[in-house]
Amino acid sequence: xxxxxxxxxxHYHTLKTxxxxxxxxxxxxxxxxYCSASIYKEQKAxxxxxxxxxPDRSDALSQQLAFFTLGGLRSLVAEIYTLxxxxxxSKRDWPRLRSRWESATTLMPRxxxxxxxxxxxxxxxxxGDVIRNRKLSRSEQENAYREYIKLGENFLLEGIAxxxxxxxxxxxxxEHYGNLxxxxxxxxxxxxxxxxxxLGAPEYYKRVLFYNLCRVPGREQEAWQLxxxxxxxxxxxxxxxxxxxxxxxxxIQVPAAEALSxxxxxxTDAGETEEEVLQRAIREIxxxxxxxxxxxxxxxxxxxxxxxxxxxxxxxxx
Length: 318
Hints:
mainly alpha
């Protein structure tokens, strides 16, 4: 019966996994690596190869993998780094997690999901963990939180620098800037999402752009114009779009020919009565009246008060 503590056995298992991977690389790739080393040097001199990550002298894994990054084994080494990133994530070892993603993205800068996953690990996992770390003072929590948010942004910016025509990276960056719970920067989210759409992002992202426009005071007119065009497409006729168009109409001067009535916004069936449509409108508008999504609520209070008063008068006996 084994007497080794469970954590130690787990550590040995992890080391065994990496050892097996390295052995496989060594057996199957050492000769190709020698042959491709000179090719790599020529390609690097011509600017055809991204730089290799510098091995950290205190990091055993990066030292062991340094040789295999030459030539055609870069993708395999990058995958090993992502596996170790998962191990770092499970242990909440955020500095190691960052280092592994930096190495993986350096080796394979065209692998879009690496940049996106790196941003998510920094912004959602690392930042979310350090802000709740009771071992840190409040100021240390906030500083570490902001640092990881910035690191997430930097991964995507560097990814875009390497893949300037990728709408996927631009949408990821726009969602990073528009994240309600991670120091949002809605103006940046808007500009970045516009670029993503220009590069061919799917139709759905126009609605995300609309939501962010609605969150920025002073951009109501632009938001209205986009929302009005979205309303013409059946796929965008959802409660949030209906509500925001209602609110925007109460803020800006909308041309009569373009304005949408309660009936146009909330009717779902030609056979519904006006009262049924109105009741649906009241329910949905009330649902969003105290939203935590930073949606504007122009005219909502007045609308609900008006119809509550009307209902009271109808119920009051003569």
